[in-house]
Design brief:
The chain is an alpha+beta fold and about 190 residues long. It has one domain. A hairpin with a 2-residue loop joins strand 2 and strand 3. The radius of gyration is 17 Å and the shape is elongated.
Length: about 190
């Protein structure tokens, strides 16, 4: 992953800082940009807007189209047509918004699917204990008007992926725990 001055972003090793701590650090700083994570051949990107997660993709996590088909909201043929339209159109257009505009799904269905996709992608990377991360500020605007606080995703996922017990990153962390999390992230960044 690229390296640069701290003012351009943050980067470090997942051996030094847990993914949950990085997410929390970005949230607490109300940062906007993209967090890229790598672990061997696995890749993930998580987009933030003012500290809230607006998109997430990870190797092994389902994509929006897969979830739409799995839920029976669109068939493969309509999905392929929407994807072709997305590629041909100008600029960055949301697949979900294209489907809403075409009347194939409604806004509530889109929101539910995007939230599920974000949760599943974040679930994949929360278990990573090795690899690298890099957060780069960017002018990111939510494409689907879906934003999730990291603490909306982390406790639910940590219970699912750990040993069945609640994780450390639970809503309402005491100030000391928040400060300890920040210090770990900052120390890892300085040592990177």
């Amino acid at each position: 992953m690229g390296e640069g001055p701290a003012s351009q972003g943050i980067s470090g090793s997942l051996q030094d800082v847990a993914v949950a701590d990085v997410l929390q650090f970005i949230h607490l700083g109300k940062r906007t940009g993209v967090l890229a994570l790598e672990r061997g051949e696995d890749r993930a990107t998580i987009g933030f807007f003012k500290g809230k997660i607006v998109f997430a993709q990870a190797t092994g996590a389902p994509r929006i189209g897969d979830l739409l088909i799995r839920r029976g909201l669109v068939d493969r043929q309509r999905l392929e047509a929407a994807l072709a339209s997305q590629r041909q159109g100008p600029g960055r257009r949301s697949l979900g918004q294209l489907l809403v505009n075409a009347g194939l799904i409604n806004g509530a269905q889109l929101k539910a699917v995007v939230e599920e996709q974000i949760r599943r992608a974040v679930a994949v990377v929360l278990g990573w204990e090795t690899g690298e991360f890099e957060f780069l500020p960017d002018d990111l605007t939510p494409a689907d008007e879906v934003t999730l606080y990291p603490f909306d995703v982390i406790p639910e996922v940590e219970v699912d992926t750990a040993d069945g017990l609640p994780g450390m990153a639970i809503v309402g962390l005491p100030d000391a725990a928040v400060q300890e999390s920040r210090e770990r992230v900052q120390a890892a960044i300085k040592n990177a």
